[in-house]
Amino acid sequence: MSEDQIRYEQFSNLLNQHKIVVDGAEIHGIICGMLAGGMTVDDQSWLEALADVVNQGEPFAPELNNMIVGVYNQICQQFIEPDFALAMCLPDDAAPINERGQALMQWVQGFLLGFGLHQADLTKCSEDVKEALEDFTHIARMDEQMTEDEESEQALFEVVEYVRISAMLCFNELGKSLLDSRQHPSVIH
Fold this sequence. Notes:
Mean pLDDT: 88
Number of helices: 8
Largest sheet: none
Number of domains: 1
């Protein structure tokens, strides 16, 4: 993780200070889902849509707004990098395994929410994307406690990696970069 990568704990604490009831993983997942679902990166309404979903439509406080915009910019950059650079906003490996598993579920739930805001027609999606979204639905519902052992650590690592790669697959298929939005300018009637 790069030095300027937003940390889960820092992001979640700031959200909590501003009485936002979701954590950093869920916000990160929502933004990833919006972009992977086809929202253009120059769509300026995303912040308002996010506030509608997690802050009863109220604008975010300036400090929180700046952090969320920073997270958005990082995600945009990571999605367009050729080396599968997406870094999910999750607790670090030192956190208890069940806390990490819960954060992953929150991230996936957020992704599905954000994706649904921008992609209602799944008939356009490949079988791989449909399968990933179906798997995400199952992952979002997982609720069994994990034991702190090597086998559980490996299983969680594999699920996190699957989710990360699948999110990038969705973006690569349906996402729109700034280049895409410039090639298809808005038509004004």
